[in-house]
Amino acid sequence: MDKVYLVLKAVIALVVVILFVQNIRVVEVNFLTWSLSLPLALLLVVIYVLGMVSGRSLWALIRRLRHGPPSAR
Fold first, then answer.
1. CB–CB of 23/39 below 8 Å?
2. Could you say which of 22, 59, 66, 67 has the lowest number of CB atoms within 10 Å?
3. What's the whole-model pTM score?
4. d(CA 15, CA 71)
């Protein structure tokens, strides 16, 4: 089973490398009054990381609301 996970990790790493290589062109991002130019691949990584952080925070908030604060247990 460890070999399967190793192969899966290698395939995912290869897909990520292909994503970076194919999306190196610079794009301009506008948000309200801010403007930023950066490679599309970097933008995708930043958006992915922000999604992971906000998703984890949302799950923590949902757990806290369902079970109450830690001191109430």
1. yes
2. 66
3. 0.56
4. 44
pLDDT digits 0-9 by tens, 21-38: 888 899 998 989 989 898
Q: Are 43 and 53 in contact (CB under 8 A)?
A: no
Question: With the C-alpha atoms ordered 35, 42, 23, 26, is the resulting torsion angle positive or negative?
Answer: positive
Residue in this structure with the two tokens 């806290």, named with its chain if needed: 64
Instruction: Write out 11-30 in H/E/C secondary structure.
Output: HHHHHHHHHHHHCCCEEEEE
Query: CA 7, CA 13: separation in Å to the nearest integer?
Result: 10
Q: What span, in angstroms and rounded, lies between the C-alpha atoms of 52 and 59?
A: 11
End-to-end alpha carbon distance in the chain? 39
